[in-house]
TrEMBL record:
Coiled coil: none
GO cellular component: cytoplasm; nucleus
Species name: Kwoniella heveanensis BCC8398
CDD domains xrefs: GST_C_EF1Bgamma_like
Taxonomy, superkingdom: Eukaryota
Protein name: Elongation factor 1-gamma
Spans annotated as Disordered: 274-323
Domain GST N-terminal: 61-143
Domain GST C-terminal: from-to ranges: 148-283
GO molecular function (one): translation elongation factor activity
Biased composition (Basic and acidic residues): 281-294
Amino acid sequence: MYSLREYFTLCKKLRHMWNQLEAPHHAIAAQPLSPTYTLDILTFAILSLLLHNPKNIIIKMAPVLTGFVGNSRVRRVRAAAALAGVELSYDDSFSMKSEWKTAEFLEKNPFGFLPTLELEDGTVLRESGAIAEYVAELGPNSTLIPSDPKQKAEVHAWQCTADQELFIPGSFLNGMLSGKYPYTKPVFQAIQDKITSRLSVIDNILVKKTFLVGERITLADIFVATALVNLFTSNYDALLRAKIPNVVRFVETVINHPKLLDIFANTEFVEKAPTPAQPAKEQKPKADKPKAEAAPKAPKAPKKKEADEEEEEPLVPAEPKVKNPLDDLPKSAFNLEEWKRQYSNLDTRGAGGSLEWFYEKFDHEGFSIWRVDFKYNEELTQVFMSSNQVGGFFNRLEASRKYLFGSVGVLGKANDSIISGAVIIRGQDIEPVINVAPDWESYSYKKLDLSNEDDKKFFEGAMAWDLVVDGKEWADGKNFK
Ligand SMILES: N[C@@H](CCC(=O)N[C@@H](CS)C(=O)NCC(=O)O)C(=O)O
């Protein structure tokens, strides 16, 4: 039962819905609604009947763009929509990779990449470039893709340049700076030089032009400008930008377009590129030379990858065949491998949980526990990217697998998060265990004392993945086992 007042509110809501309805099988759909109260109630009754048979009703919905709002690939689609005058609704509710790689989502989008665009009929479009083109073509009178085939091809060529020459290599540089990929100066420099040489060509082209193709903004400008915003806000600093003034002017023109202001709000170009994590000094094997005849046949080197083949994460460095001084530490009754099994198989907290097992068995002399914090949290953006970064760090710790257990997470939300957690290591000194990862110095380490209540709470939170630091809650995590 509804009170009259509730009826009235419902009628107002329904009247709003009415405007969005198409009820092709019902002549009544064409009737305008009366503003009078009695008619509203009647209308409500009729609409209620209709609503109980949803097959009769089609609600017009804007295509749904799923992705992270500030992401460059999402931005190019949003920019195309804004300029083409196409309404999109946004779903940026995914915060972690695990959430969006569900079987249900993968069924609609087999590679599991974002963004996607879901159309009214359930079709799911993937690839930001293709989505942007689709959106651009939808727009009434959109000139984002010229109708002349030659100009159309020119626009398409710029889309390819933006992706292959600017966006992808630029993202790789970001990955090296953040520690996702091992930083190697000559590789970093070579990629950056390649980008610079492309940009000097573009700078020349833009001496006499405002936009890349024709006299009006097209998809070419959107793609190149979004790729450059990504570059200029992360690693392509003021010194480098000074050499390409026309490109900078071009980017500023695009991002200050009145219809794009929202999309590029708070864009700040970096003054100085961040300092990358330094690689660890190479460990020279000190082992005795194997006797020639007894030496086992060296395993065949893996087939060399093509130079342009992309790696999601860097290859795990091979375990050096040197005796690790950690093996010379006095024997310990605490079995780290057994802990890893207990942790994997039992609930962490509570009676019979893995923490209970841990407290019974832990050897404070043979092992120690450390808090780990990423030093450059202000650079973190999307939670899943930070989580990837932790995964990459753990991959690079492979050579210390025997001496280390880790539970590190991303706490907080997009653009306001930290990476923090705890590791259990062999011995009392963190450096020999952790310095096998070239980016180990991007993190700070503090020994935890389990007799201190705060330290114990932190340790348990990191193990149980319910750690909260400064109000930031655990969003995603990785274990090193
Ligand atoms: N070429 C694709 C790339 C999409 C892509 O890599 N998206 C990232 C988010 S920005 C992603 O889904 N990463 C998850 C993964 O690598 O599994 C596009 O432009 O849409």
